[in-house]
Amino acid sequence: MKLLDEFHGIRDDPYTYGKKLKAERNRKIIGYFCSYTPEEIIYAAGIHPMRLFGAQGEITLADTHFQAYCCSLVRGALEGALKGKLNFLDGTVFPHTCDSIQRLSDVWRLNTSFGFFADVVLPVKLNSESARRYMTDVLSKFRNNLEKGFGRRIEDQHLRKAIDTYNHIRTYLEQIYSLHSENPHIISGSDVYAIVRASMIMDRDDLLDKLPAVVEGIKRGDTDADNGTKKRILLVGGICNHPDVYRILEKSGGSVIWDDLCTGSRYFSGIIDNSGDPVESLANRYMERPVCPAKHLSVKSRGEHLVNLVKEKEADGVIFLLLKFCDPHAFDYPHMKEYCNRQGIPCMVLEIEDRLPTEGQLLTRFETFMHML
Amino acid sequence: MSRFMKDLLIYCLAKAKKAKLGLSKNKGMRDIMTVYYMEAKTARLSRRKVAWITSGGPVEPLIAMDIIPVYPENHGAMIGASKMGAELCEKAEEMGYSRDLCSYARSDISCATVNGGPIGGLPRPDMLVCCNNICGTVLKWYEIQARYFNVPLFILDTPFCHTEYAEEMKRYVKRQIEEYLVFLEDVCGRKLNHATMEKVGRLSVEGQQLWQAVLDTAANRPSPMTAFDAFFHLALIVTLRGTQITVDYYRNLLKTLNDKVEKGIGAVPNERYRLLWDNLPIWYRLRWLSKKFAEHDACLVADTYTTAWCGTLKYMDENKFLDSMAEAYTRIYLNIGIDEMAKTVMDMIDKYHVDGFVMHSNRSCKPYSLGQYDIRRIVQEEKGIPCLVIEADMTDERNFSESQVATRINAFMEMIKERKG
After folding, report:
1. What's the confidence (pLDDT) of residue A125?
2. In CATH, what class is B197-420?
3. What angle do CA A283, A309, A201 make, to 5 degrees?
4. How far apart are alpha carbons B303 and B300 in whole angstroms?
5. Do A109 and B153 touch (CB under 8 A)?
6. Other CB atoms closer than 10 Å to residue B1's CB: what's the count?
7. What is the mean pLDDT of chain B?
8. CA A266 to CA A268: how far, in whole Å?
9. Best residue in A59, A65, A67, A133 to probe B by mutation, most B CBs within 10 Å?
10. CA distance to A39, A44, A303, B344, B377, per residue, from B340 (Å)
11. Domain range list for chain B
12. pLDDT higher than 70, residue B17
């Protein structure tokens, strides 16, 4: 499908896209690292929110700031900034995430200069009324900071329009996931990955213009994947920076039919009720959305969510994708695995530092797992 | 109950009662801690509740409610000092926990399942109190223990103060302090006595002031104590803050130290060089490190770790303890931006007349260690003193290479000697 070429292109080279957006359309761009970034507020200010995934490759400059036991996302992100790869940015925003991103924010503030900078110190616990009020306060404050930083007003109507745009985008993304889940032959996992990934990078209005055609194309069968039998796999973890995972998994006879990733379903889960106060509405989504393990909803919420997803999506197995040195996910892993074991759900774990194992090794591991299913 | 347990209980209660009344003011740390742990281990028999709480958590309401506070992190330190860390960490790794995770958490999580370690495991909690002002790790750790023990968990969420303690944070933490008290009252089935709370608050502030005074004696030349002494004496201000016994202990210690100062007795026999330590201790190599530095006539006069338990006194008001506690617990050393941390370090360098800065890059503690390189750069630029980074871990001795650390300390000390003569 020709339309998907653009998504693949953007996924492959987000920085060129960012530079073009700046050069050709003179857009203000704010970079961010976390799915709890209130993108709607940035969008409502007429600024383009662009997710950063950390540069891959050799780390040299970031080594003078972070120890080797810091995850490759944080080190790679800083490396990109220090090497000047992100010079098209007009600012960066850091929602409070984990201990490592928290310190990345400090190091970033002291060592880079992209203009606008904001910490959005969200609550860590999401199960109390006081946390909900605090969440709303923090988002309102971010709105004010953006207004001051860029000298423009963000009216409620702008926020409502933004929420509306994002609701549409999220609905389309969920629909694409659902189409793939219902029929894994209709589109490849790599294509789905490219779409959702590019949707965090692309201009959101352009994206919303293109998504209906993508959905129609998938339904028509323009995106046909191969017809081999596919084991239904749920991919669970934080960030997935490796399109090859999808391709190699399909080669081994599996397909990612859903995920619990912050670069996947956690990004688009949760449609916002757009009838009340817009900032409160945004806060409510974060309070209810499936959580990142760096946040607390209840001691069982992530395990239960996992089991529900397996049942709902009729997954045959679960692959845990762990980024080395990512503490919140590593702490949850034994418990999540136990949940799977108790329910008789087969699972495997794949720990990645910054590069994938060789294709041959990974294929063998996936194939072994597929045989178990 | 076995005869032995009954005897043990009677012995403990008698000792505890005596300790509470402050009858034996010269009690040693080991005695106090032994009684404390025995009391905690027999809590069920004395019908008292046990709460597990994080090291930076507000313990005072627990003391006021007569709940016994138990510190998994203090336990982690004991495990480290007893050199049992690697074994318990390995056990946690068998349970599926990554070797890259915090070694306190790993050893405590596995210890709970086998009742191992130096004191045969911690007493079972009736509740868990987790304050995330020190790290995000405690959140995950306490979730794990809440599932394992199936007990209620209270999270005091203290927003990170990168550059400010903003109004909305203030409101949020204050509301949570109220929720915390309600939580304790619910679990205990009785009300908090506010007069007792006030008294505990005053004792806490007094204890912290005395702890600060103890640490301040190290500003003298020669210093009557080293950071290694501080690591030892720290236990009470962490675990029993808000009690008379802690106040008595530090008053006594302060007197001893002041006597030494008067007589010019230094902790290191020929103190020539004064160093500042950063990060948690390397618990399983304390003696070795202490000897190593003393060989070079160097005294670790201060550290950023033990000062954390009195570092926010400036925000505390003993007359409005509960109110001021919100700010004091939110703005602790590990919950602020690295530029403010660097400023604190530089103030300490001036205050304690420091010649060199030793940073423990601790694999177990990301909020403490990530950012150290930038702090080192700021300190070097502004103070011009040599800085040393030691790669290690607080409890897991598998991450310590003695020969490498020795070489680096020797080279660092050579630099200092050259500079100072």
Report:
1. 97
2. alpha beta
3. 55
4. 8
5. no
6. 8
7. 93
8. 6
9. A67
10. 29, 33, 38, 6, 14
11. 1-46, 47-193, 197-420
12. no
The whole-angstrom separation of Cα B184 and Cα B142 is 17
User: What's the burial of B37, exposed, middle or buried (CB within 10 Å: 0-12/13-18/19+)?
Assistant: buried
pLDDT of B44 higher than 60 = yes
Rounded-to-integer distance, Cα A102 and Cα A106, Å:
7
Whether B108 and B102 have beta carbons less than 8 Å apart is answered as: no
Handedness of CA B258, B264, B269, B275 (dihedral sign): positive
Which helix (H) or strand (E) segment holds residue A135: the answer is: helix A129-150
The answer to whether the beta carbons of residues B157 and B176 sit under 8 Å apart is yes
Size of interface A-B (CB pairs under 8 A): 144
CA–centroid distance for B156 within its chain: 18
Q: Cα–Cα distance between B158 and B60 in angstroms, integer?
A: 17
Give the pLDDT confidence of B245-294 residue by residue, as tens digits.
999 999 999 999 999 999 999 999 999 999 999 999 999 999 999 999 99
> DSSP 3-state assignment of A77?
helix
- Give pairs for A147-154: CB < 8 Å, separation 24+: A147/A45, A149/A91, A149/A115, A149/A116, A149/A118, A150/A28, A150/A45, A150/A47, A150/A116, A152/A45, A152/A46, A154/A41, A154/A44, A154/A45
Residues of chain B found within 8 Å of residue A332, distances taken between Cβ atoms: 140
In CATH, what number does A2-157 get? 3.40.50.11890
Region for B390 from its dihedrals, namely left if φ exceeds 0, alpha if ψ lies in -120 to 50, beta otherwise: beta
| DSSP assignment of A314-369 | T-SEEEEEEETT-HHHHHHHHHHHHHHHHTT--EEEEEESSSPPPHHHHHHHHHHH
Structure tokens at B403: 């020969």
Architecture (CATH level 2) of domain B47-193 = 3-Layer(aba) Sandwich (3.40)
Q: What is the 3-state secondary structure (H, E, C) of B327-349?
A: HHHHCCHHHECHHHHHHHHHHHH
A304, A331, A341, A342: best to mutate for the B interface, most B CBs within 10 A: A331
Of the listed ranges A324-328, B24-28, B41-45, B152-156, the least confidently predicted one is B24-28
Band the pLDDT of B398: cuts 50, 70, 90: very high
B166 contact residues in A (CB cutoff 8 A): 121, 141
CA distance A344 to chain B (A): 18
- Whether A137 and chain B come into contact, CB under 8 Å, resolves to yes
Residues of A in contact with B100 (CB under 8 A): 69, 324-325, 327, 330
Tell me the pLDDT of chain A (373 aa) as tens digits. Answer: 788 999 999 999 999 999 999 999 999 999 999 999 999 999 999 999 999 998 778 899 999 999 999 999 999 999 999 999 999 999 999 999 999 999 999 999 999 999 999 999 999 999 999 999 999 999 999 999 999 999 999 999 999 999 999 999 999 999 999 999 999 999 999 999 999 999 999 999 999 999 999 999 999 988 877 778 899 999 999 998 889 999 999 999 999 999 999 999 999 999 999 999 999 999 999 999 999 999 999 999 999 999 999 999 999 999 999 999 999 999 999 999 999 999 999 999 999 988 899 999 999 999 999 999 9
Query: How far is B109 from B98, CA to CA, in rounded Å?
Result: 12
Secondary structure (H, E, C), A22-42: HHHHCCCEEEECCCCCCHHHH
Strand partners, B127: B51
Helix, strand, coil percent values for chain B (each to nearest 5): 60, 10, 30
What is each CA distance from A225 to A173, A185, A229, A251, A259, in whole angstroms?
A: 18, 5, 11, 11, 19
DSSP state of A6: H
